[in-house]
Amino acid sequence: MEHRIERIKKQLHAESYKLTPQREATVRVLLEREEDHLSAEDIYLLVKEKAPEIGLATVYRTLELLSELKIVDKINFGDGVSRYDLRKEGAAHFHHHLVCMECGTVEEIVEDLLEDVEKKVENQWQFQVKDHRLTFHGICRKCQQNNNEAN
Amino acid sequence: MEHRIERIKKQLHAESYKLTPQREATVRVLLEREEDHLSAEDIYLLVKEKAPEIGLATVYRTLELLSELKIVDKINFGDGVSRYDLRKEGAAHFHHHLVCMECGTVEEIVEDLLEDVEKKVENQWQFQVKDHRLTFHGICRKCQQNNNEAN
DNA sequence: TGGTTATTGATAATCATTTACACTTGATAA
DNA sequence: TTATCAAGTGTAAATGATTATCAATAACCA
Hints:
Chain A is of the alpha+beta class. The first copy, chain A, has helices spanning 2-14, 21-32, 40-50, 56-68, 115-125, 141-150; strands spanning 38-39, 72-75, 83-86, 96-100, 106-109, 128-139. Chain A is globular and about 50 Å long.
């Protein structure tokens, strides 16, 4: 954890931003809840536990900054809110998501499944791929089991 | 065009909705501007040319309805607005997008590039895929050329 | 025809996100 | 050390997309 904080601190410094206490508190929340896909509001409430005087606007500003630096990815699953997801350490690409249409849980696929597809896109469409977003919508394992039992 | 309107009319009837003049005007705009990725506001302005008395709320309601019936897909490229995209006739899956990070244009890939990837997801993650969203971010052909010339 | 229901348009309400602005902080130079 | 300055912050107000409300209208059916 501390190691990753250090890393992010350096990334900020490289662009001449500081890791202020508010920013650090926000990053810590993101690290602690790495598996979740938190909204700005969620993050705000969690950061408030560590740093009660923080303002919502600061959280938004921090998330925006982290987003620009590609430390987090801003995602949107179609409900009205943006969610923020830490990039895996050293990952060049955004990871994929499996969104269950029944229970709403979001699983992650860290492995990059798109290498072949990207090559195809670069060759056939002459489009130079820098990043991607891939989300599958469907039924997760648990809901499949529940459905089977119900029948 | 008329053929596709008929089709959509049937799809609505099948769920006991009607193709009102307002809904038809909205669908016509979507058909005419199929290549674009219009926001609700954009669509509203275009529909107003055909049916000046239409209200913005009706356009939203229509788009919501068409979305539920999977006649259109609601997409979000990260700017603050939802965009609406007609499904290609008979397409089981949402088509893919190439978003240029420099000029912002959005190209479409109709071909399904994900068949193999979906099989992998179903097998390895036991996730039953119903649909997907795939967007590539990068540099389009035109901007690549411009960049080369500039050097 | 009258009665019921779905649909609509205008408008107000909501809610996530941004902006404005005055205040704080922390670094730097005199 | 103290004055200065820019970056960063908190509060509150503003914005802008979307949704809800509600009275009026249109379509349908007995």
